[in-house]
Write a structure and sequence with these properties.
Blueprint (H helix, E strand, L loop, with lengths): L9 H16 L1 H11 L6 H24 L7 H26 L4 H8 L2 H11 L11 H22 L11 H34 L10 H25 L13 H25 L2 H6 L3 H14 L5 H54 L3
Length: 363
């Protein structure tokens, strides 16, 4: 919603990324369950195109209701929104769906848990967050957290479920695992770039009116992203595979969940949270998906993790926790520095006023 009277309470803002992670955690399970139940398999890229295109009217309708008349971007802002739509919607969804359809839901979500690590690195490179200092404890915590989270996620992807449980084709299974893992690792970098670009080009601009219209920003991102996805899926039209544009009836619940929850609600919460919180803090809530997806995969598919996978997941989450702790310490130090600066400024003004009063007294 458009916020005119300042930022909402901190606890309320933190509910945004928490709900965001809760909505994302079920998506791998939902798409695998409903798409596997269908007799005719839905093409993942056509499915994603329908999901993105379907979210556009939902987001713009919500923007009209809660933010007022739809804002029309000028040429410069239009180029920024096209770039955000290309990176945050088209490229990210393309990589995610390529990985999610080749990995088990719990493994896919666990790899995505390193998103805070990628965001921390990209945010420093994009100058949206201050670089760490080697002389401060919280900076070392961030460095160690990055290393630990990456190691845990890599081990988790290497020690996936047994290929005997997937048809016994070991070579094909390992190729799918490797391809899916590469796509999801690349998606974490893509999303980190999206966070930082959104922060730098919109929310850090003093006179940018678009920071008050997160629903409209999200809607335009999906509009342009769906255009790019539409261009991509035209490959099936050119090759005579038009039958792939049919979505089986059994897959409709997954498509509706993707439109209303994963796309409209979750991406709005992402944009809204990114307005008030550092990008790394927004991304740091994503490992909560690991727990939610593990539970959902166990309840729906009966999937279980080996002790090695559990240890790797625990290591990855601990690493992300260190990154979150580091950013929390940086934010507190920044607040203390601001408060100290204000107190110093007040003391100087008081001293100046007292001196002026003394000089104005008659001798």
């Amino acid at each position: 919603m458009a916020v005119r009277g300042g930022a909402p309470p901190k606890w309320f803002v933190l509910c945004g990324p928490l709900l965001l992670s809760s909505g994302f955690c079920l998506y791998p399970v939902v798409i695998k369950y409903f798409l596997s139940q269908a007799k005719e398999k839905a093409n993942p890229y056509v499915f994603t195109f329908y999901r993105d295109a379907g979210a556009v009217p939902v987001l713009f309708l919500a923007s009209y209701i809660f933010e007022g008349p739809i804002q029309i971007p000028d040429r410069k802002m239009g180029a920024i929104l096209v770039l955000l739509g290309f990176i945050g919607t088209f490229v990210s969804h393309f990589l995610y769906i390529s990985g999610a359809f080749n990995l088990d839901p719990d493994i896919a979500t666990a790899i995505m848990s390193i998103l805070p690590v990628s965001t921390s690195i990209v945010s420093v490179l994009m100058c949206t967050e201050s670089p760490p200092s080697i002389y401060k404890l919280h900076s070392w915590a961030k460095f160690i957290g990055i290393t630990v989270a990456v190691v845990g996620a890599v081990f988790l992807s290497l020690f996936g479920s047994s290929p005997q449980d997937n048809g016994g084709d070991t070579d094909q299974y390992h190729r799918k695992q490797q391809f899916g893992s590469i796509c999801l690792f690349a998606d974490t970098v893509t999303m980190a770039l999206f966070y930082s670009l959104q922060k730098k080009c919109i929310f850090r601009k003093r006179n940018c009116k678009w920071k008050n219209y997160p629903l409209a920003v999200t809607g335009y991102g999906y509009l342009f992203g769906s255009v790019f996805m539409c261009i991509f899926v035209q490959y099936y039209t050119l090759t005579g595979q038009t039958h792939l544009f049919r979505i089986p009836t059994e897959s409709y619940p997954a498509l509706l969940y993707g439109i209303f929850i994963t796309s409209a609600l979750c991406y709005f919460l992402l944009t809204w949270s990114n307005k008030y919180l550092p990008s790394t803090i927004v991304a740091a809530f994503r490992p909560i998906q690991v727990i939610g997806t593990f539970v959902a995969a166990y309840l729906v598919f009966g999937d279980t993790l080996t002790p090695t996978q559990c240890l790797a997941a625990f290591i990855a989450v601990c690493g992300v926790g260190l990154v979150l702790y580091s950013n929390w310490m940086e934010e507190n130090r920044s607040s203390e520095s601001t408060a100290l600066g204000l107190r110093t400024c007040c003391r100087k003004l008081t001293l100046l006023f007292s001196t002026s009063s003394m000089l104005s007294l008659p001798k």
